[in-house]
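Incident log, structure service

09:12 report received: a user says their structure output differs between two submissions of the same chain.
09:20 pulled the input from the user's history:
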Amino acid sequence: MCVHAVPASDAPVTEGAGASPRALLSGALKDRSLLLAGALTETLHPMSAASRRDASLAGGLAGLAVCRGQFARTRCDQQAADAALTNLEQAIDVLATEPLTSSLYGGFIGIAWAAEVVDRLLGAGGEDRNGDVDDALTKLLARYPEHAPYDLIHGLTGLGVYALARWPRPGATQCLLGVVEQLARRARQDHDGVYWWTPASWRGPQWARYQRDGVDLGVAHGIGGVIPLLARVHKLGLAQQTVRPLLDGAVGWLLAHMVDGASGPTVPASVADGIEPSPARTAWCYGDPGVAAALLLAARDVGEPAWEAAATGLAVRAAARPPDQTGVVDAGLCHGSAGLAHLFNRMYQMTAEPALADAARFWVERTLDLCSAAVRGRDAALTDASEPPWKGPGLLEGASGVALALEAASTAVEPVWDQMLLVSTTGTPGAEVR
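09:34 re-ran on a clean worker, output below:
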């Protein structure tokens, strides 16, 4: 695969082992979920010329390839497999002709990650697509800009997620060591532990309240994403003398900066001087469910019962939160009902906590309520003028992500796609699909 390695932009921004998965849903709820998931995959057609040139993992062709690859595996569907490979080749064509950043969610690394996952889901053999990507990434990490992000969506943490997918290839080791070196270089320390600084210039307009430099605690853009990455690197036995102090310090810093919520301690979105921290929304990107899943996986990777207890308590409190206090208004993975359904399902699989299973089923039902009417009466091209409760066909906020969450709740097939969210209980995507 040919790449144009452009460092991630500094523009504003707009893995643990568990038991084998078991299907969360049964009966009529399972049937409805499978039906809606299948219907949503029928809507995955980029509509405009611009969207057909979006090759990204988050909202474009690479994400569609991952979705269809997972469905090909869960449903033994050759048509889905063919569509996955078509989308993947389309994404690679874009990559070959346009310069892209090194972002996992928006750049060439996300396309390479999708290629790794799709090829393994489909059992594709032949030449390794990503050897040159490993080389490009290793060189990029050696000169990674000081001002570039460290987060999952745009920065270093996302590069580490790609390298985990490539493990145990030699290039993966070099990439992971490069990511750890850069994270260690950027880490700051105080009496509460270790943290990473987020300049105000990285924040999008939706963060008007936080237009100050500070510390981001979310999974998508902050410490919440770094923690499970470091834990997985530690479990692999790499750079442990560097990784473990960073990991212990980051968990300590995060737990020390929780704030009081209506039902107990909760994780704020950000900490900045002069701004009183307050509870975040209930979501993957920011808030208790995403951070709880990340902390739970880290606890299991390194064997820390106290972290596991803290994560489980955080998850159970989030599960009990009244829906009108969650901030959920749509169905997407990032901050919608399908994302909560998937997170609570994942944490239930690891803990067997009944409250988490109940919450997962509730949010599945909420997703069905939000999406079923939107699917009925809309043709495959989504030409209806009304807005559906998802954003386009993409994976992070769109129809493909909703479909994947419903499919994961309805089957016992490992959802390897969610390594991009850092909530996967598998070590690498290839572990369960070879």
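09:41 both user submissions now match this output. Likely a transient worker issue. Closing.
09:42 reviewer note: The beta strands are 5-6, 100-101, 188-190, 193-195, 215-216, 259-261, 264-266, 270-271. The two ends are 22 Å apart (CA to CA).
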